[in-house]
Design the sequence.
């Protein structure tokens, strides 16, 4: 079933390529059709997923497992499965992909190529979250790069070429470091790429000689993997590709980039780095908390300085991903739960924000925050959705991200109180830039240039409603998502922080 | 034996060329192709035979050599099929071109199976002489004459150095065969310094063929000056031949088995030397490729970089390192030939190879641009393309031996290479086609088919490489005399 989930988007690629280019609506609906099976399967998994199984490092705890030999001489397996760490991400990916096809309705040039690339991207994303074999994981991880490069580079904004190659170079640099770590692990752990088997080894005694220095194997490999994942998150100082990529990418691609791709970095740390190297995780978690703090505060300050609507949302993503890192660094169940919940919530909220920016850009053809004003009177529906998204993004109680940010801060407080106090200023700064933006764009006197701006249309509302419902419901009642991941996060925290402590002392 | 078949094919092509008087050039190509096909089949028939020494140890027949024979004939067949409909070469010279190519192939086959220093020298010259002619004769302009001259001068210097190294070996061991060289080294008590000097000189000869730094400087000029099909040929086949002889010489001559591991002799630390050369070669090749505005020159520098990658496998003295080289060679053959085929298709009409000319190609000619994008991704080493798997094999071998520094140099180079390979993709797809000359480019059907024949394995080998894995691990067996 997971194969169907992963590869079903490819089913419509051939029909899309065979459709004549003039029949644009046929191509669009075919693309919609391509994302439906994955969405239905994801919903089915949401219904039937056994919430009491942990997974993480127990192969018996994974569900819907598919395991076949792929290349025997290399011990590579086609091994996929779901546990609490991945299930919410699958839901998020399938949902956002489906909605983003509708958000791509305005694409007018090279439709076939666009949707083919988009569906390929979805395959890569789903596969990354499902893979339990490191080699397979790496392949899926890299498969995403090519479509992303083209999607930004061909259908993007004025500086698209620069943004696309910058994105590509940054992420490839991260992935090749990951490749080295992957191959090194392969030899240390008895010729296997199976992630579960890799977790069963104790690497603490191993050392590596590099340029005449001797260092711990686990530490070096942890850092290599960390850089690979950190570029994707992105954490400071690897974040500079993100604003460029976001600003130049078309709306739907920004949504995918912020909604799903950023989560992959954090997911990779949870799935791979933490359980394989518990002692190195412990050794590094202080630094991780500091990086999280920088992300939160620095991202928020940068966001405040922006006048470009999209850049503002991009920097706010960096800030919000900092909370995810803080929760992960804390080594507490609350923190870890909060981290994954924050990943999910940030996915829905940023998706809304980018969709809203896209709606405005399609009408006004610019994103300058100071160029609007008073839009609320002209576009009340649009304004309401925007207000909801803005309040959600600043963490208003009653909306989803309040719960998750609170959880990460609670978790962080127990381990790193001083750092956590600094992190909370991020929420205040977030409120400041979000409210300020709201005021600049929607309140005040109506800018006469936009006196006849058309209201948001039905298709656009359709893309926003499911996300809005999620934001409100999860704000009051986060249990549907928390229940999915609770068993696994408990297990992960026990595994990493208990075994890590044992081997350190 | 394939060598005999090819010699007969050379005669056949010569006769056909004379009889046809340049009017029916198809006949030449058919003759050459048949010759190569039969030679390929003959080499296939040798698969499975037990390794033996032939001609009193001058040559050996082992799976390692057979692998290269198959490789050379296959590559050359592609080139012959490319030259056939190609208009850059004046038709008068087609017959000669085939003859010289077949001659080079014989030389390379001998090189890959030679087990004696004298034989190595002769085979190397047999490979080089037709190459000089191929460079300069076929296209009559100043650039290709200059390239030819450069090639001859560098070649002469390199083989001179090699002969000097060989004579040193002879002086110390009293024999030219690799086996007795090995025997003397095992006994010990040899003058280490002189041995090292001899090794370095011999390496110069091999390095010239592989175009490894510092013997690489002829490569860009020759690649640019020669007509493009010839360049495609040079970028793959002689490089493989150079690697073959290097691997055989070092692994059966200059290393010994201790505790089940192959090791260099004490005081003769050539693996470290090769590791440094490999790192320098790939870095220099990649950095130089960054600045090129001519696609052919860029591919020339990138081929230097790829030689550096492959040398990583030669450093290790392990089976997995050797296997990685063989695996990478096949993959490299597909992707590099493929890239050159696209360059040929474009330059056949316009005779221009600068980046500018690829503008908007993605929208005008998807049948050329999509495979070209495949080749570029594969050369960079991005999954799911074959080049990625090849690199995984190489890095796996390097990391297995804990040579982390070399692995880091290698991967950083991959990132650098992304930039210039993506420049082509960028120009084809991302740049505004603008007012670029939109005259349709006619590509012969045979040529398009060939490009697809290269593109399909470039993609498929990224997923399913079990067969190639078995082939390359079978071909590991090097005849060592015992």
Sequence:
């Amino acid at each position: 079933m997971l194969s169907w989930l992963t590869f079903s988007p490819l089913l419509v690629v051939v029909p899309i390529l065979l459709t004549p280019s003039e029949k644009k609506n046929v191509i669009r609906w075919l693309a919609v059709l391509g994302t439906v099976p994955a969405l239905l399967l994801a919903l089915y998994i949401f219904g039937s997923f056994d919430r009491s199984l942990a997974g993480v490092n127990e192969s018996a705890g994974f569900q819907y497992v598919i395991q076949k030999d792929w290349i025997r001489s290399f011990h590579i397996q086609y091994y996929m499965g779901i546990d609490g760490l991945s299930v919410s991400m699958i839901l998020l990916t399938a949902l956002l992909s489906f909605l983003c096809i509708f958000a791509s309705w305005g694409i007018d040039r090279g439709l076939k190529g666009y949707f083919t690339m988009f569906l390929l991207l979805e395959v890569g994303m789903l596969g990354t979250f499902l893979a339990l074999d490191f080699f397979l994981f790496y392949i899926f991880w890299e498969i995403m790069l090519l479509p992303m490069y083209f999607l930004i580079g061909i259908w993007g904004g004025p500086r698209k070429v620069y943004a696309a190659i910058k994105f590509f170079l940054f992420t490839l640099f991260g992935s090749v470091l990951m490749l080295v770590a992957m191959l090194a692990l392969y030899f240390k752990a008895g010729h296997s790429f199976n992630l579960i088997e890799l977790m069963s080894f104790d690497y603490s005694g191993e050392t590596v000689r590099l340029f005449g220095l001797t260092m711990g194997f686990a530490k070096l490999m942890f850092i290599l993997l960390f850089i690979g994942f950190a570029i994707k998150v992105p954490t400071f100082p690897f974040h500079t590709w993100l604003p460029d990529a976001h600003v130049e990418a078309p709306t739907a691609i920004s949504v995918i980039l912020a909604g799903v791709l950023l989560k992959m970095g954090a997911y990779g740390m949870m799935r791979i780095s933490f359980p394989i190297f518990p002692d190195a995780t412990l050794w590094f978690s202080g630094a991780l908390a500091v990086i999280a703090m920088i992300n939160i505060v620095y991202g928020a300050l940068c966001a405040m300085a922006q006048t470009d609507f999209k850049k503002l949302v991009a920097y706010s993503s960096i800030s919000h991903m900092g909370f995810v890192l803080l929760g992960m660094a804390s080594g507490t169940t609350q923190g870890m739960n909060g981290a994954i919940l924050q990943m999910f919530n940030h996915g829905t909220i940023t998706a809304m924000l980018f969709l809203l920016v896209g709606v405005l850009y399609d009408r006004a053809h610019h994103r300058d925050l100071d160029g609007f004003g008073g839009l609320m009177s002209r576009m009340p529906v649009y304004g309401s959705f925007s207000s909801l998204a803005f309040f959600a993004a600043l963490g208003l109680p009653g909306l989803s991200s309040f719960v998750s940010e609170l959880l990460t801060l609670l978790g962080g407080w127990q381990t790193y109180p001083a750092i956590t106090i600094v992190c909370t200023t991020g929420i205040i700064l977030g409120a400041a830039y979000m409210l300020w933006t709201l005021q600049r764009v929607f309140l005040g006197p109506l800018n006469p240039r936009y006196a006849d701006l058309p209201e948001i249309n039905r298709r656009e509302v359709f893309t926003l409603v499911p996300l809005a419902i999620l934001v409100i419901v999860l704000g009051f009642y986060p249990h549907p998502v928390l229940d999915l991941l609770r068993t696994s996060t408990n297990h992960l925290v026990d595994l990493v922080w208990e075994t890590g402590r044992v081997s350190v002392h | 034996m394939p060598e005999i078949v090819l010699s007969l094919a050379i005669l056949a092509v010569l006769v056909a060329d004379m009889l046809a008087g340049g009017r029916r050039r198809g006949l030449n190509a058919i003759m050459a192709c048949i010759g190569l096909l039969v030679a390929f089949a003959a080499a296939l028939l040798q698969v499975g035979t037990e390794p033996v020494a032939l001609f009193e140890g001058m040559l050996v027949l082992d799976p390692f050599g057979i692998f290269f024979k198959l490789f050379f004939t296959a590559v050359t067949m592609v080139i012959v099929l490319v030259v056939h409909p190609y208009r850059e070469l004046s038709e008068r010279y087609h017959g000669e071109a085939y003859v010289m190519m077949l001659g080079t192939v014989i030389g390379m086959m001998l090189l890959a199976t030679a087990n004696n220093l004298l034989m190595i020298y002769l085979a190397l010259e047999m490979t080089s002489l037709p190459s000089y002619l191929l460079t300069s004769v076929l296209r009559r302009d100043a650039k290709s004459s200059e390239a030819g001259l450069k090639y001859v001068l560098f070649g002469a210097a390199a083989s001179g150095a090699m002969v000097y190294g060989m004579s040193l070996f002879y002086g110390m061991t009293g024999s030219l065969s690799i086996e007795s060289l090995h025997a003397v080294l095992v006994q010990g008590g040899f003058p280490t310094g002189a041995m090292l000097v001899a090794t370095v000189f011999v390496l110069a000869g091999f390095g010239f063929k592989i175009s490894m730094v510092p013997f690489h400087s002829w490569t860009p000029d020759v690649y640019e000056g020669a007509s493009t099909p010839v360049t495609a040929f040079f970028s793959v086949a002689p490089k493989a031949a150079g690697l073959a002889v290097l691997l055989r010489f070092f692994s059966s001559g200059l290393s010994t088995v201790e505790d089940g591991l192959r090791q260099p002799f004490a005081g003769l630390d050539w693996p470290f030397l090769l590791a440094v050369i490999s790192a320098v070669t790939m870095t220099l090749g990649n950095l130089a490729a960054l600045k090129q505005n001519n696609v052919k020159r860029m591919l020339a520098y990138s081929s230097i970089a790829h030689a550096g990658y492959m040398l990583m496998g030669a450093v290790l003295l392990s089976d997995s390192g050797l296997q990685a080289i063989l695996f990478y060679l096949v993959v490299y053959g597909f992707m590099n030939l493929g890239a050159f085929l696209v360059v040929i298709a474009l330059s056949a009409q316009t005779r221009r190879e600068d980046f500018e000319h690829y503008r908007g190609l993605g929208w005008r000619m998807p049948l050329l641009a999509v495979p070209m994008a495949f080749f570029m991704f594969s050369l960079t080493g991005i999954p799911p393309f074959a080049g990625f798997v090849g690199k995984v094999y190489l890095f796996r071998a390097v990391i297995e031996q804990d040579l982390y520094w070399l692995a880091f140099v290698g991967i950083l180079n991959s990132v650098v290479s992304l930039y210039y390979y993506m420049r082509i993709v960028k120009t084809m797809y991302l740049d505004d086609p603008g007012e670029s000359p939109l005259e349709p480019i006619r590509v012969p059907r045979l040529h398009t088919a060939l490009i697809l024949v290269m593109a399909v394995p470039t993609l498929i080998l990224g997923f399913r490489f079990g067969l190639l894995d078995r082939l390359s691990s079978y071909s590991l067996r090097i005849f060592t005399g015992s």
In short: The CA atoms of residues 277 and 480 of chain A lie 30 Å apart.
